[in-house]
Amino acid sequence: MEQPLKKVVIVGGGFAGINLIKHLCKDSRFLITLVDKNNYHFFPPLLYQVATAFIEPSNISYPFRRLFQEKTNLRFHMGSLQKVNPEQNNIETDTGVVEYDYLVLSMGTESNYFGMERVKANSLPMKSIDDALNLRNHLLLNMEEAVHAEDPKEKEKHLNIVICGGGPTGVELAGMLAELGRNIAAKEYPEIKDLRSHLYLIDAGKALLGPMSQKSQQEATRVLKKLGVHVINNTAVKDYNNDTVYLSDGRTIPTKVLIWASGVTGREVPGLPASVVGRGRRIMVDANNKVQGTQNIFALGDLCLQTTDKNYPGGHPQLAQVAIQQGILLAKNLSRVTDNKPMEPFAYNDKGSMAIISKYKAVGDLPKFFFKGFGAWLVWLFIHIIPLIGFRNKVKLAFSWFWSFVTNDPTLRLIIRPRKEDVQKEYEKFTS
Ligand SMILES: Cc1cc2nc3c(=O)[nH]c(=O)nc-3n(C[C@H](O)[C@H](O)[C@H](O)COP(=O)(O)OP(=O)(O)OC[C@H]3O[C@@H](n4cnc5c(N)ncnc54)[C@H](O)[C@@H]3O)c2cc1C
């Protein structure tokens, strides 16, 4: 007799969720439903290029329904997770209830403001396509206002840009904004003298690119300083109010733009017991990514905390490669369980890390060596094109990069503002 299909519900179609789906959909014994609050997958490592008007959002995103075309065992449910009901084997979303046999939670993280409510209310995060577009509009509008401002103090506030967080996102943003100042602002905004001298990169750690090698850290600092960025280490942002950033060493910086690229925390999952929520609000899982104390609920990627990998007793770094590898292994493990075979434990294979600093300059830490400069920059471009979903996206991005880097003149600096009330109305209609 034919067995009924096992219902696998995956909440979050980021790196972990999408790689799980890509591999599990080959097994026709599963009916897979992806639940995501957006109707597209996107590629966070390139968000900063959207925010700085270097590439279009469509270069790094792809609609789930297009991805699922002609796959008979895949369904998409657009909605945001509200609650997990482990006893009933279902989840509640803002657009309805979804039943599961296996539940996989892979909703990633959100920005962590470390309890600073005014920073949360007034700064600009960099976690989603919406954030990146919001930041792009904000930066462009701010430049227009800087042009109009007559009071030098007011002008200064519009010109200063403060980035909090010296990880790859903060470094890449600072480098890109410095290039924007050098190549674009100088040509298009004759009223603005030198945007680069108004860029501040603040980090609480003693070096930029904290988890990378010392050589990468030194190179990033050297290149950014040469580009005119004020790099401030060993200093935390303490408050942001009345257009002023307050630093832990007592300094203040007047600015209309504080970009928050510092710290993340796991997304909340109501319905799970508090005892499974660990450090950084990450969900504690066993070696097979099964949520502690449950039988059929798994957590993957940035959202989970797995301490069983002997090389990472404190948990894995929150990186794309970890999420991808966990997604692929869980697909294999769910098939194994259905074949009555034991699951395999997860062990992270670190392929190295890279960061781009500015045009033609990047750093890379491979397991056995460090490299930098133009060669590293080319490798960075290559490895960021390969994982993009969709051949057309890869070609479009390669062309955009070629055009923008060669001409120094990308043409995406459009201020497009959908009317807030229309967006709100549509959303309320959808979720009611
Ligand atoms: C700006 C930026 C730059 C980065 N650069 C790098 C880099 O260079 N290299 C690197 O290795 N890593 C980088 N990272 C980290 C990397 O993106 C993450 O480690 C990776 O995305 C984690 O994958 P994930 O599948 O766990 O979560 P995500 O990729 O974050 O996916 C989460 C998914 O869940 C969905 N979701 C969230 N909440 C809900 C909800 N309530 N209901 C339904 N769906 C929901 C989201 O829409 C999203 O599709 C960067 C991250 C950011 C933000």
From TrEMBL:
Its EC number is 1.6.5.9. It catalyses: a quinone + NADH + H(+) = a quinol + NAD(+). Residues 6-327 form the FAD/NAD(P)-binding domain. The keyword Oxidoreductase applies. The chain crosses the membrane at residues 369-391. InterPro entries: FAD/NAD-bd_sf, FAD/NAD-binding_dom, NDH-2, NDH2-like_C. It is an enzyme of class 1 (oxidoreductase). Residues 351-404 form the External alternative NADH-ubiquinone oxidoreductase-like C-terminal domain. Keywords: FAD, Flavoprotein, Membrane, NAD, Oxidoreductase, Transit peptide, Transmembrane, Transmembrane helix. It holds the Pfam family Pyr_redox_2. PANTHER family: EXTERNAL NADH-UBIQUINONE OXIDOREDUCTASE 1, MITOCHONDRIAL-RELATED, NADH DEHYDROGENASE. Belongs to the NADH dehydrogenase family. This is NADH:ubiquinone reductase (non-electrogenic).
